Amino acid sequence: MPSAVQFAVLPAVVLSLAALRPMPTPGVWATHPQAAGTTFTIDPVHSVALFRIQHVGAGQFWGRMNALEGTVVYDAASSTPPALNVTAKLANLDTSSEKLDGNLKGPNFFNAAEFPELRFVSTGGTKGPEGHWRIEGELTIHGVTKPVSVDLEVTGVATTPFGTKAGFEATTTIKRSDFGMTWGVEKPAGVLGDEVRLIVALEGDQAKPAEPASGS
Predict the structure, then answer these.
(1) CA-CA distance, 133 to 141, in Å (whole number)?
(2) Which of 65, 91, 105, 184 has the smallest number of CB atoms closer than 10 Å to its CB?
(3) C-alpha distances out from residue 121 to 104, 143, 147, Å
């Protein structure tokens, strides 16, 4: 594996998102099923998934997956949780090292040839204060699907010259061994951490309504 030094410099967005804001102290939380709302199509230019893992028991290094795809359904006036359907393609994996990118896409890790994408689909959520949600859903990595809880912040909804946009930031921590990726955990032991921190920044464009079919 390359040394941690190779990952010391990553895009400024990584540094800005690394300083995570903690979730507010929970007040009265209420669980709601998902419901219909405004559909926002994920903007691949302004959305990114970041992952962080410990290297050789020392530093934490970062990677990212660019050009995310999918939708977020959200109703700001409703008490129903946002509904997320997000896909990250391993072809867009970026660690700033071509050698490491190839290694991570290989059979010891993501095995992109057989499992070319990662996907999260929400199933419900719990409402918190100040635009925060605890979203439940299913995460698929390496062909394995597991339930996960995600802390989600609605970062803003704005009307712009380019249409209505909405922003969301999701964070969670998973164990990669739960998804069958154990290289560096068991053998060789201690080379890479098992826990992976995920930060997913999403910006979506309000989907345009379908035009009615023309008459015959």
Answers:
(1) 23
(2) 91
(3) 23, 14, 10
Distance CA 95, CA 100 (A): 7
Q: Is residue 24 part of a domain?
A: no
Judge if pTM exceeds 0.90.
no
Closest CA to 180 of 135, 114, 93: 114
* Residue labelled with tokens 């979730």: 23
Residue 5, C-beta contacts closer than 8 angstroms, at least 6 positions apart: none
Give 80-126 as a DSSP string.
SPPEEEEEEEGGGEE-S-HHHHHHHHSTTTT-TTT--EEEEEEEEEE
Q: Which helix or strand (DSSP H or E) is residue 12 part of?
A: helix 12-18
Beta carbons within 8 Å of 135's beta carbon, 6+ residues apart: 81, 82, 84, 122, 124, 125, 149, 150, 151, 152, 170
Dig out the tokens for 74 from the structure.
């959200």
Domain that holds residue 107: 32-206
Q: Which amino acid is at 15?
A: L
Q: Tens of pLDDT along 153-167?
A: 999 999 988 899 999
Residue 81 tokens read as 């949780």
Distance CA 174, CA 74 (A): 25
Which residue in the block uniquely carries the two structure tokens 């100040």? 130
200 inside domain = yes
Task: Report the number of secondary-structure helices (H) and strands (E) in the chain.
Answer: 2, 12
pLDDT at 191 over 60: yes
Q: Are 68 and 46 in contact (CB under 8 A)?
A: no
